[in-house]
Amino acid sequence: MSVVSSRVSSVSSILKSPGVRSQLIRRSSRVYFKLPKDFKNIIYNFESGNGTKDYEDLICILRDSNIKDSDLIEFLGNVRQCMSLISPAHKAFIETLLQIKWTSRSLEVTSAYKAFLEDLICMQIHYAKHVIDNLVEQFKPDDGDDTEWEAGECKEESIQRLNHIHDVLRKILNIVPMSSKLLLQSLRGRFPYITHGTHTHEVYIYALIQILEYAPQLRSDILSLIINRLIVLDVNIPRLEIEDEDEDMIDDNECDNIGNENNIVEENNETETDKIHPIAHKLDVCMELILKYMHDSCFIQDVLQIESLKSLYFDVLRIFETVILPTHASQYVQYIMFYICSFKTAVVEAFIDWLWRKASDPNVPCIIRQSSVAYIASFLVTAKFVTAGLVKAVQFKMSKWIHDYINMQDYSKYIDDENKEHTVFYSVCQALFLIITKRHNDYPDSKKYMKYLQELDLAKIITCKLNPLKACHPEIVHNFAEITRMYQLAYCYTIIENNTRSQLPLFNSNKTVTTTVENFFPFSSYTLKRSGQRLIPLCHENITSSEYKSISEYREDVEYMTE
């Protein structure tokens, strides 16, 4: 071991003086340690038990010193020549060598380092996990690099750095087919925690999406991993806090209007950046990456590729079934399914049909059936790309299922069965009421639509002994009552008043309060700004009860329909 200085002959003796040690630390950028050229002898001596100190000094140099590019290239060449000697006993040496930051060095260094990694994998397969773990860890930016990409566009230096890593991973997957399992394990284990910064998540997910270009067989697993972690972010965003922040931003904008118009834009931008919840912003950036990938996978020069869409849809659907659908109270991640459905009407129909089969299958757990019904209702009332024909078809399916359920209960003693639960029935009723309420304006021919609604026999539904108006959410019941009165289909108000006055249990049991179906509609609103630019144009604005037709308009419609 030699030091590039005529004065320094023994590291241990110099470091005895605290003053000299601090000077060396401050001048570390100007102190270089030469790597030994007799690497083969060091390995032999270490294995024979005679050269432990030289071996340990070599590890210290690799770990702690600055190494010139030329020295590192020469050393890596020597290591490659002795690759057959690198047994599992040299784990510490290999791990130290893997810690070298090589992706930002010169092209000659990166080429030499890639060649070293490839030889190591080919000749010493037991180091495959260490190599893959190190490569995946290097996806993440340096600790001091927390500057997000502008408009989500990856910086050129980041692209070059990641491309070096992907070059090695691509060859490893080709050389060792079983390495796919190791790669997935490493991707899961090194995924950024929720406490990591936005830029770390941004770069890591971008890198994972790049893997799909040369390892499409891993797409389902990698997308599942990403969406799983996005769900963790999603459920940790305080719902009320986000809503309050949006209201505060609106109030601030109204106040800004009083001031100078040129200052408004700057103040609004600062307010938006300062007030948005940090986890919400993190999820927003990640959602945009996923949505962009989905669009780019299915469209080439704005032309939809049907086979690509079909393949991606089934992958996303499996993830939706296992990850998103069972998750309660997620706010944003479910819009991934919403977005892919917007690419083609056939995908919408397939997804709604899949949900309905879940909802109507008695072998599926009730909570999943209720969630499926909620997704159907929310999707139909929110998506602009859903056709009126599909809405009518779903309404007819729901009403038929409800009537079949009522008829089946007429032959049982369900009124006397206090343990009988009808949560799915009430969920379907609530979904039907909501869809009719929200989408009734889609039909210009009101007279024809009224005849269609009459076929649903809504009066029988609301007057059945199960009394769905008592179990459904009050706001939905009120709005539904308005619509049925407008079309003269049923009169709900008498039942609503009786339900309000009555304190008797619904099932003639000891229960005194009827459980109300949860008013959960997963596509109710999307408030994330960056990814929202893709999604918000696809959604209807939220319709409140105050936005329905006036009483005079009701009368005009009724007069027209009853002529």
Mean pLDDT: 82
Order of helices and strands: HHHHHHHHHHHHHHHEEHHHHHHHHHHHHH
Strand content: under 5%
Distance between the termini: 104 Å
Number of helices: 28
What does this structure look like?
β1 (about 300) and β2 (about 305) form a beta hairpin. The chain is mostly helical and about 575 residues long. The N and C termini lie far apart (about 105 Å). α20 packs antiparallel against α21. It is built from 28 helices and two strands.
Strand and helix layout:
Blueprint: H1 11-14, H2 18-26, H3 39-48, H4 52-64, H5 69-81, H6 91-98, H7 107-123, H8 128-137, H9 156-175, H10 179-189, H11 198-214, H12 219-235, H13 239-256, H14 261-275, H15 278-298, E1 299-300, E2 303-304, H16 306-324, H17 335-341, H18 345-359, H19 366-382, H20 388-410, H21 423-439, H22 446-455, H23 458-463, H24 468-471, H25 474-486, H26 493-501, H27 532-535, H28 551-561
Antiparallel strand pairs: 1-2
Key features of this structure:
single chain, 563 residues, two-stranded antiparallel ribbon, 28 helices, 1% strand, elongated, disordered N terminus, disordered C terminus
